[in-house]
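Revision sheet: structure tokens.
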Amino acid sequence: MIKRISQILFVIAIAVLLVSCKNTKQKLQEYVVTYNKSIAPSFRADNVTLTTARGYINDDKIELRFETNLEQNEAHKSAAVISFPKLIKLMIDKDQIPRQLIEEGVQFDVYFLANDNTVLDKEVLTGESLKDFLK
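Predicted:
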């Protein structure tokens, strides 16, 4: 009798565990909401005036945008190519960009934009590029 009850409880526990697990698309959506509500309002970095996240569930992709007060010119573009990857690495280390999502196949397109919304630098984070990026 006790063995039978234990088996039933085990099956129920496994069923609850499976139901509570989130799939990648749910995690993607949850990350975008959390980023825009919690991370973006308090985000501070040199020259960054605004940051936002946008999710593309069907493409397993997240777009992060960092708007700056910098003018579009070669000097700012050259500086961005050096400083922007450092900022992204710091965000990965702080789990503001979660490795787990990248390792599950979510692509992050990360843009560093000038004050006229033109691209100063763009980085694409995938499972493959993450290894090279974090060196």
